[in-house]
Specification:
heterodimer, A: about 425 residues, alpha/beta, D-Maltodextrin-Binding Protein, domain 2, 2 domains, five-stranded mixed beta sheet, about 5% strand, elongated, B: about 300 residues, Rossmann fold, Alpha-Beta Plaits, six-stranded mixed beta sheet, 14 strands, about 35% helix
Chain lengths: ~425, ~300
């Protein structure tokens, strides 16, 4: 164990002493933040002129809105139920851009659906939410006469506004979230591939400069391989944590300065040109970043062990770096396969093939994050945990097998 | 110290060690000889437990060789490498700790050897900055820094200049004096003649010869005799008659000749002395023993002829 730790420490310190690690630690997240900033800014759609139809069969709102109504949004009331399909297809409703559906239980379940034809800008979302929520609060406070409206607002529970595309009312696609999950999942494969190459090169170098013969006189080949995977894995993990820290600080900075919190009333009506757009809303509001990060770490560790073993074996089989490049191709294809599988799953989330791909160790990290980013149900989450277990089990089996292959190959010059 | 009992090993159906048995006596220098591909490296890797034999056993101090013994074995492989980005002292500490020394012990031993080999000024240099000879010294230190009972040296002299060859040879002898058992695999037969006590000759996975070096040389003596005498060369030649063949002759100083003779038939050295006594004044007479190089070449050639 001491020897294993000694080798692991050597791998770790060697890489931490390289300038490249520190450059990548700082530049990587900065480039990402800049790219994110550029994308978010480019996606800012500004204000829209639109008509909102509030279907209020219980006449809860009583055709009343709060006084502050922006001129570009026009509200209309319907005192009846309205089928979503009818709103979508019927000629009479084509002039309306948004349908707000308030059922009679809205005061109790505090949830209402908003269906839109075109993506709504955050301004509109804020306004809609403000108008409906405040009116509801007024009504609830009135029901409980012992409370003033101000006192009620202090103890209130927030209303849930579920914004959905009229073309996808069940919200099955959640494409933006799915793509965000795809990016995060692909990021795992990217990092695994990047540091897997480091394992490959380190193994080839040890073999070609023959120090492996000295090392193997003190430690078993399996331990040597594992120490390399763990040591380099720790470097990758350190870098990831560094990235996460810098990205978190960067996102907080952007949120506080450029992309203000849309649901904070103190930010309304500011004269500043900065306004939230759907993408920034996705990044800052819809994705549970801390939840995703925990799963990112779990999947990253399991994937790294899985792919790391493969890279180490390839390194052991390669006599020299040039030979090794040929061995690498199939492995790069496998990494690419995971990414393509992710693209497929974004477009066809409910097919049998997607279900199969979600368990395959090569593609499961990407598919898991697509599901997680969309908001996993209990069933989905069980699948994700199961796929993580499958990945981990495959990694352990592969490490065992790779240990043997590594042993057979490392001393063949 | 080491007992190898009937070990065999094959790689992809090719037999590289065929039922080899040998013993390495404690505190001695054991030459492991053989041409390339003889199976020496395979045997050495087995001693270092990098490979397992297909059949047979290896014993270390009468115990079946196991992982615990690795701390008592030092190994300098033929193809040796170091981490080029590491500093000399840090690298030696790393390798010493891998061999089971504590950090404090490793530090003490490393500093001792750096001073001993006069490379203490280089301790903070990166390996990449060292000359080849300097790196070889570091590798040599790495093999013995943990004071092993058994030191396996595979071509320890290759790459060294004559001065450093002398240095390493003396170091090997000094280690032997301190009780270290040494297995020396080399193609440098001069070093075998000079420092090895025992030797084994491997060829195509088979053991061709195994004995003490002196017995091997005596056993392969070809009846050649060196004679230095004062007198007349013609008288000397007449005395030889038909029982001895004159192979070489030269006049070293005026009236003093040095010759090499070959015994023929059943004639002995005593017969020669009797024949010469009356003719010339013999100053020196010696039965010439073959060098290990000659034995090596003879045995391998004979074996190859048998094979053909």
């Amino acid at each position: 164990m001491t020897k294993f730790l000694l080798l692991t420490k050597r791998e770790l310190t060697e890489r931490l002493s390289q300038k490249g690690f520190w450059y990548m630690l700082v530049l990587g997240p900065l480039v990402l933040l800049l790219s994110l900033f550029a994308i978010l800014k480019a996606a800012d759609q500004g204000k829209q002129e639109l008509k909102v139809l509030i279907a209020d069969p219980g006449q809860i709102m009583g055709h009343r809105l709060m006084a502050q109504v922006e001129k570009n949004v026009h509200y209309y009331f319907l005192d009846d139920y309205l089928e979503i399909k009818e709103f979508d297809k019927a000629k009479a409703y084509q002039e309306f851009d948004v349908l707000v559906e308030l059922n009679e239980k809205v005061l109790n379940n505090k949830k209402c659906f908003v269906f839109y034809r075109d993506q709504l800008s955050p301004d509109i979302r804020i306004q809609l939410k403000f108008q409906v929520e405040k009116r509801m609060e007024e009504l609830i406070a009135a029901q409980h006469s012992s409370l003033t409206e101000a006192a009620f607002r202090q103890i209130k529970q927030g209303f849930i506004f579920d914004f959905r595309d009229i073309k996808d009312p069940k919200n099955e696609a959640k494409e933006a979230n799915a793509w965000a999950g795809f990016v995060i999942g692909s990021f795992i494969l990217f990092f695994v591939g990047l540091y897997g190459m480091t394992i490959f090169r380190a193994t080839v170098r040890e073999k070609s400069n023959r120090i492996v013969e000295v090392l193997l006189a003190s430690i078993r080949p399996e331990q040597l391989m594992l120490s390399k995977i763990v040591g380099i894995g720790m470097v990758a993990l350190l870098q990831l944590l560094g990235w996460a820290l810098i990205l978190t600080l960067g996102l907080l900075f952007l949120q506080q300065t450029v992309f203000l919190d849309i649901f904070d009333p103190s930010n309304w009506g500011q004269a500043t040109p900065q306004r939230l757009n759907p993408l920034s809303s996705l990044v800052f509001e819809q994705l549970n970043l801390s939840f995703l990060f925990i799963h990112f770490l779990l999947f990253f560790i399991a994937s790294f062990l899985f792919y790391g073993a493969l890279f180490a074996v390839l390194g052991a089989r390669s006599g020299a770096d040039a030979d090794g490049q040929q061995f690498l191709l199939p492995l790069i294809f496998l990494v690419a396969f995971g990414i393509f599988a992710g693209i497929y799953a974004v477009y066809y989330p409910n097919t049998t093939l997607s279900a199969v791909l979600s368990y395959l160790p090569f593609s499961s990290p990407v598919l898991a994050f697509i599901t997680l980013a969309k908001g996993a149900s209990i069933v989905d989450y069980t699948t994700i945990l199961l796929s993580l277990l499958v990945l981990l089990a495959c990694a352990l089996i592969l490490l065992k097998l790779a240990g043997r292959w590594y042993k057979q190959s490392i001393l063949k010059f | 110290m080491i007992k190898v009992a009937q070990i065999s090993k094959s790689y992809q159906r090719k037999l590289v060690l065929d039922n080899i048995s040998l013993e390495v006596p404690k505190g001695q220098i054991f030459g492991l000889l053989g041409p390339n591909g003889a199976g020496k490296t395979t045997l050495i890797r087995m001693l270092n437990q990098m490979l397992s034999p297909d059949a047979g056993q290896i014993y270390f101090e009468d115990q079946l060789l196991n992982e615990k013994h690795l701390q008592q074995i030092g190994y300098l492989p033929e193809e040796r490498g170091l981490y080029k980005t590491m500093e000399v002292r840090a690298h030696l500490l790393f390798l010493a700790q891998l061999r089971g020394l504590s950090k404090q012990e490793a530090s003490r031993h490393v500093d001792h050897w750096l001073v001993h080999f006069e490379i203490q000024d280089w301790k903070n240099k990166r390996i990449a900055a060292l000359s080849k000879g300097m790196a070889q010294k570091v590798q040599f230190i790495a093999a013995l820094v943990h004071q092993p009972k058994l030191l396996i040296l595979d071509e320890p002299l290759s790459g060294f200049d004559p001065l450093n060859v002398e240095l390493i040879m003396n170091e090997i002898k000094a280690l032997k004096e301190k009780g270290t058992t040494i297995i020396l695999s080399t193609h440098n037969m001069k070093s075998v003649d000079e420092i090895c006590d025992h030797a084994a000759l491997l060829h195509q996975g088979q053991l061709l010869a195994l004995d003490s070096v002196i017995k091997l040389r005596q056993a392969h003596a070809k009846g050649r005799i060196f004679v230095r005498f004062k007198g007349n060369m013609l008288s000397f030649a007449n005395a030889l008659w038909t029982d001895f063949t004159l192979l070489e002759q030269k006049e070293s100083t005026e009236g003093v000749f040095e010759c090499i003779l070959q015994l023929r038939g059943t004639s002995t050295v005593n017969d020669l002395m009797r024949s010469l006594q009356a003719q010339v004044a013999v100053e020196h007479l010696e039965l010439l023993l073959p060098s290990m190089q000659e034995i090596f070449i003879d045995l391998i050639t004979q074996k190859d002829k048998q094979h053909d």
